[in-house]
Amino acid sequence: MTNKPTKDLTPPAPKAAATGVRAAPPRRRVPGSSPPRNLHGHVLHELGQRIVGGELRPGELLPREEALADQMQVSRTALREAMKVLSAKGLVESRPKVGTRVRDPRFWHQLDADVLAWRCALMPTEDFVRKLVEMREVIEPAAAAAAAVRCSVEQLERLDAAYAAMAAAKDLDDWAQADLAFHEAVLNATNNELMASLFSVIETALGTFFVLSARTAKDFKYSLPHHQKVLEAIRRRQPDAARRAMLRMVDDSRANIEKRRRGAKV
Amino acid sequence: MTNKPTKDLTPPAPKAAATGVRAAPPRRRVPGSSPPRNLHGHVLHELGQRIVGGELRPGELLPREEALADQMQVSRTALREAMKVLSAKGLVESRPKVGTRVRDPRFWHQLDADVLAWRCALMPTEDFVRKLVEMREVIEPAAAAAAAVRCSVEQLERLDAAYAAMAAAKDLDDWAQADLAFHEAVLNATNNELMASLFSVIETALGTFFVLSARTAKDFKYSLPHHQKVLEAIRRRQPDAARRAMLRMVDDSRANIEKRRRGAKV
DNA sequence: GATTTTTATATTGTACTACAATATGACTGC
DNA sequence: GCAGTCATATTGTAGTACAATATAAAAATC
């Protein structure tokens, strides 16, 4: 577990110091987070993806700040601001004299939107998809039930609007956007901001599903009836019906994803 | 919604620049997070608590970095490192020329351990406790069921150890520590790190409960049988029994907290 | 020779300065 | 009245210097 200070950490950006613009790394477009326009944002993403992606392994000691800043072609100031954020997400730990170490995944803030997005930067593993689905099965039926009990008329209107947008969707992109809005509206309708903050997980799960099902883009509206049942149960203030309808939706989605996986073994 | 640059933001620390040590703010000891030893850690906590505690209101424009750094008696460098973390937690948003603004609570990362701890820095509201309990009702029964299906022998041993520590607890502190370990062990036993990351919520909920029940510290072991039922159900690989037992435990805990609240209206 | 104490040293932590980038708002011209 | 231009305030970035800290080597002591 010795350090390798000579390991290549240089980002793909081919010294674009003149323009100040850095070339985007050739990675998949991640759903949730918009590409950073700040320098420390770039550094943050770069290091975050390398750590979560496994390129930088847990326990590994990063080069010292000055060297790392040089390799990344940024100032130590910018690097440190990125490091503080990585540290806040539980990915690294810095101590004087000893250096900055990648922490064990046990300490990572797995529900953080960036961490989730970085996990999906590469094609997500079957195991990770399973875990995402499990989270959906736990969260969304409960949220639907709570929404049926407590949602306001404004929140119901937002649900209606999202459903209408899904019904009117002309392509997969439209559908994906409206679908996301629907599930976010359900979480918000619980009037529990802790529940609503779990949207990062749902968003990642749905985004992954959309990517996996992208090649068979036809029949993307197949789950519309499921959504309608959830909506109607919430409107009628029937928590149990809402829970069951949502659970059916998620289970159906899981079955669908497993079928696709078996079909076109990536 | 105009800015008030003269608003007092000076921390309680009475210019302890000579020693470098800052006086601890007279706030409640928060359960999860250890007091920061770094300067930007202090600044982070200070600003975080003020924002989450409502002293700095959403939409409000903070003083510019130089002025704020002066008021906090730290360098702009340290202040900015704290700001980046606050920004990563969704609490503030900085833009050139316009300044740093406190964001709407809708954007706060409510599941972040620090944000949760800051919400509990003041006495938590009844509403917040209700939301915490709702989260427990959703998360923990599902986790217990998943643990019954998938937990390993090592994980079961950790559960056993935590239960033994609870049974052997001599005072409320011992009990609280072991109780926390038990619930963490259940989450870990799901073998789903996303589920395990929800421990910050459980920790906050249990911590709040301990504080609320501190004055009636006798009979703190009353929930031991509940824990035993959960443990045995997991050991016997009975997910439904585990789910029901855990749900009973949480509901019992909720009833208990409501009774205390009605009794000693704070 | 083993153990404790001291010292050296490498790395992060903090402060300060200077300047670049950027978005707002006022000003100008039409 | 409206579009375009420019001044300006604030954050963003870079660089330097030094303080604090923890490891490891070295020295002193038993």
List the helices and strands and how they pair.
The structure is a homodimer of 266-residue chains.
Chain A: H1 39-52, H2 65-72, H3 76-88, E1 92-95, E2 99-102, H4 113-119, H5 126-150, H6 153-168, H7 172-188, H8 193-196, H9 199-212, H10 224-235, H11 239-263
Antiparallel strand pairs in A: 1-2
The structure holds a DNA duplex (30 and 30 nucleotides).
Kindly summarize this structure in a few lines.
Chain A is mainly alpha-helical and 266 residues long. Helices cover 58% and strands 3% of the residues of chain A.
Which features does this protein show?
homodimer, 266 residues, mainly alpha, two-stranded antiparallel sheet, 2 strands, 58% helix, elongated, DNA-binding
What does this structure look like?
The structure is a homodimer of 266-residue chains. By secondary structure, chain A is mostly helical. The N terminus of chain A is likely disordered. The first copy, chain A, is elongated and about 60 Å long. Helix content of chain A is 58%, strand content 3%. The relative contact order of chain A is 0.11. The first copy, chain A, has a two-stranded antiparallel ribbon. In chain A, a hairpin with a 3-residue loop joins strand 1 and strand 2. The two termini of chain A are 33 Å apart. The interface between A and B is medium-sized, with 35 and 34 residues. Chain A binds a DNA duplex (30 and 30 nucleotides) through helix 3.
